[in-house]
Amino acid sequence: MRPYIVAGNWKMHMDSESGTALARSIHEGLAADPPSDGVSVVLCPPFPVLSSVQAAIAGSGIGLGAQNMHNEDHGAFTGEVAPGMLRAVGCTFVILGHSERRQHFHEDDAFINRKLRAALTHGLTPIVCVGETLEQREAGITEEVVGGQVRGVLAGITAQEMKGVVLAYEPIWAIGTGRTATPEQAQEVHADIRGVLASLFDRGLADRIVIQYGGSVKADNAAELFACPDVDGGLIGGASLKAQDFLAIIRAASTLAG
Ligand code: PEP
């Protein structure tokens, strides 16, 4: 049985004060109504807010994640953050290859693959994002595009390493648009991704890998998306910025996890 992982991607929102308040509210909400054992919760604030969020969630079981990192340990990479730096402030997760990084910062599968290897070397669980544009979906090449991204970001990754990787299917047309994939659309791509994992590794391992869905997940659609057999939780943007909304999404996963 795979766990559900519900992760909040705060993007470039929240300062130390508002981020701490949000993290505290989520901590308190989960203390009052703890999620099922099969549900993990992760908060991914911006870099400058990581330490204060870490303090606010200490002892709660909530994981801390970053939204990006460089693959090198140190060096002349102005503006970048190294994996060891994330570990030092308490991160155990890192989002890699988010479509906003691919689009605005020209990250490609090869670079994401280097980051993925570095994350694993440093004991961080990478949440690796893949997803197609609206044009690609309308052209009927979703499976090809997403399958190609999965193969690209996982190039050279061993079966042992793969056990520490989380994938997130995030159709670009659904991110921040309010337009969510239907459960059928999400399930179809998640099953395709699991098929690619089975061909790269084996069916047993493919069935163990957590594949989150991301793209306008809200309190009122989380349950139907998470009920899909191959959808193992969500990467949540906008709805993770309000404690009550995020807690409701966690509850949806919790109810399904039993
Ligand atoms: C995201 O940031 O990964 C995301 C899915 O955003 P939203 O939930 O706002 O669509």
Question: How many angstroms does the end-to-end distance come to?
Answer: 12 Å
CATH fold call? TIM Barrel
- Based on CA atoms alone, the radius of gyration comes out at 17 Å
| Largest beta-sheet details | 8 strands, parallel, barrel
The CATH class designation is Alpha Beta
List the bound ligands.
phosphoenolpyruvate
What is the fourth-level CATH superfamily?
A: Aldolase class I
> Which structural class fits the helix and strand makeup?
alpha/beta
How helical, in percent, are the residues? 40-55%
DSSP strand (E) fraction?
A: 5-15%
Number of helices: 12
Could you report the average pLDDT, rounded to the nearest whole number? 97
- pLDDT under 50 segments (min length 5)? none
Domain tally: 1
Order of the strands making up the biggest sheet: 1-2-3-4-5-6-7-8
Shape: globular
- Number of DSSP strands? 8
List keywords for this structure.
eight-stranded parallel β-barrel, alpha/beta, binds phosphoenolpyruvate, TIM Barrel, 8 strands
Write up this protein:
The chain has about 260 residues and is an alpha/beta fold. The chain has one domain: Alpha-Beta Barrel (TIM Barrel), CATH 3.20.20. Helix content is about 45%, strand content about 15%. The protein contains twelve helices and eight strands. The chain has an eight-stranded parallel barrel, surrounded by five helices. Strand 7, helix 11 and strand 8 form a beta-alpha-beta unit. Helix 1 packs parallel to helix 2 and helix 1 packs parallel to helix 12. The chain starts with a strand and ends with a helix. The relative contact order is 0.16. The model has no long low-confidence stretch (mean pLDDT about 95). The structure holds phosphoenolpyruvate (PEP).
